[in-house]
Amino acid sequence: MIELRLVVNGEERRLEVDPRTTLCDLLRERLALTGTKKGCDRGECGACTVHVNGRRVLSCMTLAVMHEGDAVTTIEGIARDGSLHPVQRAFVEHDAFQCGFCTSGQIMSAIACIEEGRASDPATIREAMSGNLCRCAAYANIVAAIQAAAESR
Amino acid sequence: MIPSAFDYARPENLQDAFALLAEHGDEAKLIAGGHSLLPMMKLRLATPSILIDISRIDGLAGIDATRDGLKLGALVTHAALAASEQVRKLAPALADAAAQIGDTQVRNRGTLGGACAHGDPAADYPAVLLALGARLRIAKKGGETVKEADDFFRGMFETALEGDAILTEIALGPAPHSAYVKFPHPASHYAVVGVAAKLELQGAKIASARVAITGVGDSAFRAKSVEKALSGVDAGDAAAIRSACIDAAAGIEARSDVFASGSYRAAMAAVYAARAVTAAAIR
Question: How far is CA A12 from the centre of its chain?
Fold first, then answer.
C-alpha cells in the first residue's frame, strides 16, 4: 500500500492505496464519487474523463499513485453554490443525452474543449470531442449544447 | 480488468531510476504516461513486479529549438508537441503525427518517449522519426549512447532499448518540407497505414527524399526504392509522384488483420506515400 495525497474537487484527501488502483476506481470505490463512469476501462470511450491539474484525462488509464499532490476535478465538483455549471445547463437545455451513462465524461470533456478554444464551430467540436463515445448517438445535441455554452461565455 | 500486483517507485532523478532498474532487472517496467503499458497490464500481457514511474524526473519534458533543429525530452506529451509552434515550423511531420494520436485525453497523458519505447507496429512516431533521421539518446548507468532511428525500431514491440536503459531525448534536424498522413483505424486511431515524408527541394524539383511507413510491416520501415525514385521528380507533378510511390511496400510482408488485409495495406501504402510527399512538397 502506498500513501497518497490528492486534492479532489477542492478538498484534500489522504489515503492508502494499492498501486494497482486506477484513478477511476479510486474515485468511485474509495471516495464514492460515482459520477465518473467506468465504460470500456481501456481508454477508448471517454466515460471516465476527469480533469487533472486543469487538463482532461482518462481516469481509467492512469494509476492513482501517479497523481500525488495533483488536483482532480470530477463531475461532482463543477456546480457552484447549488447552480449547475453552464455546460451542465446547456446539456439539459439541448437534451444532449439519452441514457446518461456517457454524460459525465462528455461534460468534463466539453468544459475542457471550450477552455482549449476548440468550440468555435461544429466540425471543430466534433474533432475535439472525438474521445467521448455516446452509444445512444446523442451527438447532434451534444455538439449543439457545447456550441451554445461556448457562445454564452 | 485489474493488473496483477506490483510495487511502485517514483525516483526523482535518473541515477535513482538506474539503481532501481539494476535492482529489479526484467521484473521492472518504466512508466511515464502509461497509455500503452496500462492496457497491456490490465490484460495481463505485461506483468511487471515493479513499476518505476519516471514521469516526475526533471529535465525530460522540454521542447528546445537549437541551431541544429529540435531537442525533445522523452516525457513531452503528444498534446505539447501538437501545440508547439517550434515543432510546427521545424518538423511539421512530427506535429502532424502528434495531433492525430488517439484523442485529446490520450494526447494529454501519452508521451513521445513512451510511444517510441513501446515499439507498436502501428504507432505513428516511428515513421516520422525514420523519415526525419531522428537521433535517440539512451541513458544507462555509466553513460549515454545515441542511436539513429534507422537502428532503433527493430520489430514488433522490439526496439534497441535494453532493459537497464532509459530513452531520454529525441533530436531532429530541421525538416520544414515534411508531412505525415495516415489512414487511421476508426476506433483506436492507430495507423492502418501511416506515411511520413521529408523532402529537400531544389527549385521545383525534389533533390532528395526520405519516406517511412508504419502500420504495414512488423515495425515502421523506410521505403528506400521510393526515396530513390523521387529524386529529381518535379515536386508539383502529382502523376510522377504517384508513380514514384507505387512500390512503397515492396519487399515487406504486410500484416493482415480483421480490419485490413496485407494486400490492401500494401496498396494503401502507395496511396498514402504519394499524399505524404505531395503534402511535404507544398510546405
Answer: 19
Domain B178-281: CATH superfamily, name plus number = CO dehydrogenase flavoprotein, C-terminal domain (3.30.390.50)
Q: CATH no. for residue A100?
A: 1.10.150.120
Tens-digit pLDDT profile for residues B38-54: 999 999 999 999 999 99
Residue in chain B closest to A55 (alpha carbons) equals B108
pLDDT in tens, B65-80: 988 999 999 999 999 9
Contact yes or no for B2 and A112 at CB 8 A = no
User: Yes or no: is domain B7-52 CATH 3.30.1120.10?
Assistant: no
Nearest-angstrom CA–CA distance, A87 and A33: 19
Distance of CA B78 to the CA centre of its chain: 11
Q: What CATH topology corresponds to B63-172?
A: 3.30.465
Indicate which of A3, A49, A63 best probes the interface with B, i.e. most B CBs within 10 Å of its own CB.
A63
Report d(CA B203, CA B104) in Å as an integer: 38
User: pLDDT tens for residues B233-254?
Assistant: 999 999 999 999 999 999 999 9
Cα–Cα–Cα angle for B50, B54, B56, rounded to 5 degrees: 130
Tell me the mean pLDDT in the region B195-205. Answer: 97
Instruction: Sort out which chain A residues have CB atoms less than 8 A from B108's CB and list them.
Output: 55-57
- Residues from chain B contacting residue A5 (CB–CB below 8 Å): none
Question: Is B109's CB within 8 Å of A62's CB?
Answer: yes
